[in-house]
Amino acid sequence: MDKYYTNYLNYFTTLLTDSPTPITTALSYALHPSLFPCLLSGAIHPLIHTGFGIEFENVNVMAEGLSEACVHAREVAPVLPGDGEWEGGVGKLVDVLESVRADKALDGIVRFEDENKTKRVLASEEAVKSIKAHVVRYEVGDTLESVRASFHDLIQTTTLLLAGTAFHPTQPQSHRPKLDFFLMHAFTSSFALRQILPHVTPAQAQTLLRSHAAVSLMHYVARGRPPIQKQALESYVPSDEANQGWHKVMEMAVRNHDLHVPKVVRGLKWFYDENKDSQGDVELFLKAAQVTVDEFEVRKGDWFFKGVGFKEAWGESGMGKL
């Protein structure tokens, strides 16, 4: 399907350029039931591009996101519960995440040596059934206030997926962190989601939050369900440079060669600023940013692609003890 990308790009660029309301037009396609699962496929890249296009009111980037969705299969559709399956959500997403980690039904679904771990999960009826059973417990209300609370829960959870999973399962302070490439995209896509939510109805926001949560849990399973080590993240000792605060952390991110790094740090800083007057633990965002820039700028590391939740991940040379 990739061969049609240019055709889609030309179509959407013209459509959105000519539209008097390009954001509304873009979202009418993005949220259409036939395309929506594609928006969340491909490591959630179509959603990321669409969200950033909306943030900067850039029709070219919006068109890129929609075109990416059009050339992706509806691969994540199996883990997206239908409307009638969402009744009864009563819990925080971070607690749902822990229940997924403890679910014995998910043992052995994915192996470290599997080349495409996402496909492995989605091909398993047992895994799909289990993920759907867990994610429907995530509480998302139908009012603006409850949507905001649920989104705050989501960003706390995706921050932990990004950086709370980066530590050695038994010796977190004596091994280099490993930042999982796919769990990182769960975080950056949640930041893109932040840009979309002001433009949709509460009912659409419910669908977006719940579906993003389902896909994030799917990726968590595919990455081997690493332990969520919030305490290790909170006690992380940053480098001298990163310890100088946000200004220095952002400077480190901007000069890095990997373009994902400034996107991650910008999202973390945004969430820090938006929530610093609340009662939440905003220092978690700074710690996650420090872990990220230290790994890339100080230790000259890279994203980990094989899944940080597998014991084999921590036995490989070159990514061992500090």
Key descriptive features of the protein:
single chain, 322 residues, mainly alpha, 15 helices, globular, disordered C terminus
Short description:
The chain has helices spanning 5-18, 22-30, 36-39, 45-55, 59-70, 93-102, 117-122, 125-135, 144-164, 181-196, 202-222, 230-234, 246-254, 260-275, 283-298. It has 322 residues and is mainly α. The radius of gyration is 19 Å and the shape is globular.
Describe this entry's structure for a reader.
The chain is mainly α. Helix content is 56%, strand content 0%. The radius of gyration is 19 Å and the shape is globular. It starts with a helix and ends in a 24-residue tail after the last helix. The C terminus is likely disordered.
Radius of gyration: 19 Å
Structural class: mainly alpha
Helical element count?
A: 15
**N-to-C CA distance:** 44 Å
Overall mean pLDDT stands at 94
Beta-strand segment tally: 0
Helix content: 55-70%
Q: What composes the largest sheet? A: none
Estimate the global geometry from the Cα principal axes.
globular
Low-pLDDT runs of 5+ residues are 317-322
Strand residues, percent: under 5%
SSE ordering = HHHHHHHHHHHHHHH
